[in-house]
Amino acid sequence: MVLHCFCLSLFGSVAYAVSVASLFPSSIPLGELPYFHSQIFMSHKS
């Protein structure tokens, strides 16, 4: 169940990052995407 929840949150963060990147392609460089994902994951964990 925990793994399922983790996969859902991970998929959600990826989809969110992709949508944000498509809306604002210049605001989030591809090099910062891993950092962006980790920030989302940390906010989900807390």
UniProtKB/TrEMBL annotation:
Keyword Signal tagged: yes
Q: Alphabetically list the UniProt keywords.
A: Signal
Signal peptide residues on this chain, from the entry's feature table: 1-17
* Protein name as catalogued: Uncharacterized protein
